[in-house]
Design goal:
Chain A has 148 residues and is of the alpha+beta class. Chain A has one domain: Heat Shock Protein 90. Helices cover 34% and strands 26% of the residues of chain A. Chain A has five helices and five strands. Chain A has a five-stranded antiparallel beta sheet, with helices on one face. In chain A, helix 1 packs antiparallel against helix 2 and helix 2 packs antiparallel against helix 5. In chain B, strand 4, helix 3 and strand 5 form a beta-alpha-beta unit. Chain B is an alpha/beta fold. Chain B has a five-stranded mixed beta sheet with strand order 1-5-4-3-2, sandwiched between helices. In chain B, helix 2 runs parallel beside helix 3. Chain B starts with 6 loop residues before the first strand and ends in a 12-residue tail after the last helix. Chain B is 31% helix and 19% strand. Classes of the chains: A alpha+beta (148), B alpha/beta (113). Chains A and B meet through helix 1, helix 2 and helix 5 of A and helix 1 and helix 2 of B.
Chain lengths: 148, 113
């Protein structure tokens, strides 16, 4: 199943609607609440980022029995230094966003923490795409790695 | 509820709350990055994002500190999601302190290394 949502860039109060909708769908599918929470948080962080930095974008959630893939694509200004942007506490959010309770520089690291796989592609002046994969079925053991 | 001398704004029907810890924060970014399960959120942030953040994190109880009142839109969102909203006249510090004194001693956040 694939769901697609437009994330508005001019109305911050709408940010999070797509994530809430995906959370509801996953709940109806009877997915483990811990996985739903990780998915919702990761997607919500990305949605907030889109609304703050990119003037909105498109959110997609693809749900299969094995996994959930969330793709968040925007045509915003892009991220010049991805490594810096991934640092906890680093933020370029404007003051008014901080007054709304966001922009603490935790978003990207929090997406990475909550997703099993996280990919950030960005080109300055063109936009940013965040792809997050959350596994539903146990993955084959590779190198004995796991979430901590 | 008594310890906060709180007023129930929404969710009077579900006051039998199963809450194991509390988290006091005005910064929703931090709520999202740190909060655990079965948490009551105390906040001074009054905008729809406070409710949405709580909803996405399965937080069922939000206490607005410093006497702040949520908007009708926020109350409607909370109702839709089966959440309980409370208001206390106490400051964040005093509200947290009172809950702690009353026995709610677990921090509602994950371990920070």
């Amino acid at each position: 199943m694939k769901y697609r949502y437009a994330v508005p860039g001019d109305d911050f109060s709408m940010a999070g609607k797509a994530s809430a909708e995906v959370k509801r769908i996953l709940g109806q599918l009877g997915i483990d609440p811990a996985i739903i929470k990780r998915t919702s948080v990761a997607m919500y962080e990305a949605e907030i980022n889109m609304a703050i930095h990119a003037g909105g974008g498109v959110a997609e959630a693809e749900i299969s029995p094995e996994r959930i893939v969330i793709t968040m694509a925007d045509e915003g200004p892009g991220i010049p230094d991805i490594e810096l942007a991934m640092t906890e506490g680093y933020s370029t959010a404007p003051e008014w966003i901080r007054e709304l309770g966001f922009g603490a520089g935790m978003g990207l690291p929090n997406m990475k923490r909550n997703a099993d796989e996280f990919k950030l592609e960005s080109a300055v002046g063109k936009g940013t795409t965040v792809t997050m994969l959350i596994r539903l079925a146990p993955a084959p053991i590779a190198g004995g790695g796991g979430r901590t | 509820m008594e310890v906060l001398e709180a007023i129930v704004i929404e969710g009077a029907g579900n006051l039998d709350l199963d809450v194991g810890a509390a988290c006091g924060a005005d910064l929703m970014s931090d709520v999202m990055a740190f909060v655990k399960d079965r948490v009551v959120l105390l906040t001074g942030l009054v905008n729809p994002q406070a409710i949405r953040t709580a909803d996405l994190l399965d937080i069922k109880v939000v206490v607005f500190v410093r006497g702040k009142s949520p908007s009708e839109e926020m109350i409607a969102m909370a109702r839709e999601n089966g959440m309980t909203l409370l208001r206390t006249k106490y400051s964040m510090f005093l509200a947290c302190g009172r809950l702690y004194e009353a026995g709610l001693k677990s921090g509602g956040i994950r371990d920070i290394d």
